[in-house]
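Notebook, student rotation project (T.W.).
Task set for the rotation: take a protein with a known small-molecule partner, predict the structure of the complex, and write up what can be learned from the model alone. Partner molecule chosen: L263DTV3. Sequence and SMILES entered below by T.W., checked by me.
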Amino acid sequence: MMGSLAKLCQAIGFQRAVANVEDIESISKARHDRDGAASLSNDHPSALRCFKGMLSSAKGKRIVVFLDYDGTLSPIVNDPDCAFMSDPMRSAVREVAKRFPTAIISGRSRDKVHEFVKLDEVYYAGSHGMDIRGPPQQAKTYDGKYQTKALDKKGNELIIFQPALEFLPAIKEMLKELEKKAMGIRGAVIEDNRFCVSVHYRHVQESDYGLLHEKVQSVLGKYPHFHLTRGKKVMEIRPSIKWNKGHALEYLLDTLGFTGTDNVLPVYIGDDRTDEDAFKKTIAQKRKKKRNVAKHLVDEPE
Ligand SMILES: O=P(O)(O)OC[C@H]1O[C@H](O[C@H]2O[C@H](CO)[C@@H](O)[C@H](O)[C@H]2O)[C@H](O)[C@@H](O)[C@@H]1O
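Predicted structure of the complex:
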């Protein structure tokens, strides 16, 4: 059962920790591309060195796997439309999804990630978690108005959760303005991620960075309910709601029936700053468990 997870980790670049598994092309090299991404260092504890230990803490628990897309399941490439996932990576994710509930949480639009991943057996959260296609169960602790039922191509029932729905008209307007403004700057690429917008500057001359930033800020100034975050050579404009990849992880755990339980171990694999919101929630989950154990000890009569 753990073999499939080890294989996926190896495909993502965790080879050192899980030796003796069949060789799958690693994307770790591509991730160290000096583009501002956090790299492994003494300041960052390495999952590579404690993978087996991490798995031993999964004993008796249900593992739920959460994966980022760009830079994790696909290499970072120059053209965002060409960030394809390799077939071995797809097989590794498919194998994991057979054994553990698995979700992909990306900054991309949900449809775009699905198009790249092409697997129906995983759950998808696009737009940094603001567009979730989850299990066919309403989440208990979330506002029902953002949850709608839908059917997939095979007629299976799904729940769609979109907490930023009311921002859609403004996002469409903003997208047009950004496209117009960015046209003047060579190399700038605007990507429609449905509930957020990416402004890529990977191909912009360094001398034009400031100008592009100014233009983005001038558009953003007209939309006070939005804010800017940063990724790898990309500025991302998002609605200012209290919702990120971490909340999406919690939402999915809820719809999978794990709210208030101790018997779950969420595993999140990601490479970028926005993934840190989800890492924090997995840690919070662990702390919650510790608190519950402590409470249990206090409640328990001696
Ligand atoms: O949450 P993620 O799935 O990691 O998405 C974050 C952004 O990823 C994409 O941009 C990044 O990957 C591109 C393809 O490798 C690369 O060209 C770009 O420079 C990177 O920033 C995606 O295009 C963005 O919309 C996502 O927000």
